[in-house]
């Protein structure tokens, strides 16, 4: 059965929570162990602009979300907001964060993550927003983002970051010229 990417439903949450936990050892994401909430609550963030589930054979195997970037005055992570705003030269309300992005370990290398990212980026563009993300610089994620056009705009140490983790890298995807 072909890959299907569709809006996430609440019925997807148990399977996506299991996928999140399963892939954590290989990817290092999320960067907190144990999570301060259930895996399902981690996936089902409040305030998202949009969320999608990737399915193979009707089984959830990946997820991505688009979240608003809040003005630093009200953001729980004001330094990230400031870095993204400076990186794009835009106010927070013109930005969107790509997050809660993961795929099952067993489907890596099949283009599922890339398809999820395309879906999210298309949505961000349709909203007239500029994309941002943050990443812990472990493994190959930063290099993958660089190869696909993302640009580093700084690093910061969010309150949720564990003491032994490196600073979070803030990245933006410049508009195509």
Automatic annotation (TrEMBL):
Provide a Gene Ontology MF annotation, just one.
acyltransferase activity, transferring groups other than amino-acyl groups
Q: Does the keyword Transferase apply?
A: yes
The secretion signal range is none
Q: Report the residue ranges that make up the N-acetyltransferase domain in this protein.
A: 3-176
The answer to keyword Membrane applying to this record is: no
The UniProt entry, under InterPro entries, shows: Acyl_CoA_acyltransferase, Bact_Acetyltransf, GNAT_dom
> What UniProt keywords apply to this chain's record, in alphabetical order?
Acyltransferase, Transferase
Membrane-spanning ranges = none
Pfam families per the record?
Acetyltransf_1
Q: What name does the UniProt record give this protein?
A: N-acetyltransferase domain-containing protein
